[in-house]
Write a structure and sequence with these properties.
Strand 12 and strand 13 (about 195-200) form a beta hairpin. Strands 16-19-13-12-23 form a 5-stranded antiparallel β-sheet. With about 725 residues, the chain is an alpha+beta fold. Helix content is about 40%, strand content about 20%.
Amino acid sequence: MRSLRYGRAAAYLVTLLTLMFGASAFAQDTENLLPVTEAYKLSADASTPGVVKLHWTIAQDYYLYRGRMAFKGGDGVTLGQAQLPDGEKHDDPYLGPVETYHHSIDATIPYTVAPGATTLALSVRYQGCHETDPKICYPPHTEQLNLQIPAAGGASKNALNDLLSAPPRALGDNNAPLPAEQAFHFDAIAQDARHLLLRWTMPKGYYLYRDQTQLTLKGAPTLSLSPAWPGGTTHSDAHFGSTTVYFGEVTLPVTINGDTNGTASLDLIASFQGCQDGGLCYPLMSRQAHIALTGGSNATIETAPNPAPEMPPADAKQNDSLHVSFFYALLLALGGGLVLNLMPCVLPVLSIKAIGLIESGDSPARRRMHALMYTAGVLVSFVVLGAVIIALKTAWGAHLQSPLVVAILALVMLAVALSMSGVVQFGASLGNTGSSLANRSGPAGDFFTGVLAVVVASPCTAPFMGTALAYALVAPMFIAMCVFLALGIGLALPFLAVGFVPALSRWLPRPGRWMETLKEVLAFPMYLTAAWLAWVLAHQRGADAVGLLMVAAVLLAMTLWWFERSRARGALSRILVGLLALFTLAPLYYLATLPAAAQASAATDGVVAYSPEKLAKLRKAGTPVFVDMTADWCVTCKANEHTVLDGDDFKALLKRTGAVYMKGDWTNEDPSISAFLQEYHSPGVPLYVVFPKNGGAGHQLPTVLTSSLVEHALTEAAK
């Protein structure tokens, strides 16, 4: 078991060692390394019946790992436990306690063979490293031995004459690692003054790590870089865990953040790491590129004097969200916030403000106060939400993954609806701000209605909004907060316009008795919102959670009913209101302790549940894949499913193109889906990515789908 454990870890040993050692002389020094069979000369002796003796002569500055030795008998051969001497013990910073051998080592292995056998077939595997510069490790090496065994009482010939007619062979002797410059060819060009295009080209059988790549600008402290990595291949690494790598070629668009006016050229330093598949891992490599900031100009690469010609991006549309200017991002955010007013998750809350504006009548001062306080609530909420998202690296709408938050929102919607139905009337005092969400006349009510609008808007993603949020998530803090403020201004803009432009206020109907009826009618969208949140809760925590929510809802209704009746009563009645409110919190406590509801993982109705392993397997098989990252609380996701993805036309399209529909459910937190969202710089769900059958980069679709858009993407992916 110990050998097996070391076997899995040591296959990537060089990946670990490169965190400690540099590579400035790697290209030159690797040429002086000994071939593996000369660094570790193996001889065998089977002259003693029932025992085979192995001897390694280890060259200077080389060593073998005790835990990397493995022995396997051929047909008819049964091996006993190998007898190995103790090695030199030390604590490896990554592998823990290890034992190594220098200079030489002898091992004995007992064996038995079938009656009448005259030869001993034996497979010997070992691995070692070079301990001075360049500090690298060889891939696991296997030698096949075929030894003459003595007859009863006899002896074999010299062991070196007992090998196969061919010398011992290594699994990979004909696949020696290339020099670093040939294994990882690096190019860089400038598309324009704000965008670079980098490219790594690797021969077959080599791959590049995405997360071990760092890009820095030399001598440009006011500028920063935002790379937009395409989708790669998921790779299980002994040290880095599940990581993303690229085979063959990867083209990387990079956005330059900051003012490049007056800057004629830049010096880019690219540090990266890669491996030979199943073989050598290279130490950290660096390239320095001198790039003239003129569109299409090739860079001068310090270690690659003959860069390849200009290449267009592998998928120009995939990362458009990171290729926008700051002011364009603000414009997109403003438009996205404005369109949010029309989304079904926001409309119920806006009904509260519609009633408030109508009730304000012809008073300009009251209209302005409504607009300003509502806007303040929206902007403060967006600032807080943006700060949390940036600090925690979370996603838009991720707070609805918490069943407790969903339950509280459902109860808030119920309380607001009961108020609009006339069951209870909340006061306007600041001491009662927790209940002022439904108030239409006080400043606190306006402010907290703006807060509520932002909270319930988060499950929705309006057109243009996804691009702006993606830009904010990779931009510096100040710029990111400006984007979130622009979203808030867009959401509050209709009320600001009505509040401050008298001409628009003339479009509002005059107050009258009809307003009370309208207010009661508008309560029903609030009830429906509460019902939708209960449905989301059922998917998150099951029927028990919905039952607890219903109990809390009944207790809340009882609390509000008695609150209204206690207005003309004494202090004892108000104490009872407080006790009922505490009882309302009890079901929420138990709800928060419920385990997550079981999620279906098997394919249903032609839908395959997302996993990185399944996606990698399908891509390796050359199957086009449509990946849909969704959540039950995402209204935009459900709208796309209803209009496009659940229809017969989409199913027929999948069949015609041979594509697989893979869905990731982010209703509850899922680390693998979160990693996928981060890989595509998505601010949240929905996220749609189409992977072509030729293994190229995934193509990211807009958040709002149309049938023609999906058909075009899948048709191209199937070519």
